[in-house]
Design brief:
The chain is 72% helix and 4% strand. It has 2 helices and 2 strands, in the order ααββ. A two-stranded antiparallel sheet has the order 1-2. Helix 1 packs antiparallel against helix 2. The protein is elongated and about 60 Å long. The chain starts with a helix and ends with a strand.
Length: 98
C-alpha cells in the first residue's frame, strides 16, 4: 500500500513540475521578447513543447504500467492468488495464450 501511495505522490509531483514548465513556456511564447521573435526560435520552442507533451504521454503510460504491477503484486501476496502470468500457457509456437 505504501508503494502505491509513493507512486501516486511522485506522479503528482512530476505532474506539477511539468505543468509549471509548460505554463512558463507558454507565457514566454505569448509574451515574446519585444523585438519580434525569429521564426526559427518559435519553431524550436514549438518543437520543444511537442517533445515535452510526447514525453509526458510516455511517462503516463509507464506509470500506469507500474501501478498495475504494484497492485497485482500486492493483491497476489495478500490473497495467495496466482499471478497474472500464471494464467497463461505456452503453445507449440512458443506463444503465450490464456
Amino acid at each position: 500500500m505504501f508503494h502505491f501511495m509513493g507512486a501516486v505522490m511522485g506522479m503528482m509531483l512530476i505532474g506539477v513540475l511539468v505543468l509549471t514548465l509548460l505554463a512558463v513556456l507558454v507565457f514566454k511564447a505569448l509574451r515574446g521578447n519585444g523585438s519580434g521573435q525569429d521564426s526559427e526560435e518559435s519553431e524550436s520552442e514549438a518543437r520543444m513543447i511537442q517533445e515535452i507533451y510526447n514525453s509526458l504521454n510516455r511517462m503516463e503510460n509507464r506509470i500506469e504500467a507500474l501501478e498495475t504491477l504494484i497492485l497485482d503484486q500486492d493483491s497476489d501476496q495478500g490473497n495467495g492468488r496466482k499471478s497474472r502470468r500464471d494464467n497463461y500457457e505456452e503453445n507449440d509456437d512458443g506463444m503465450r495464450t490464456e
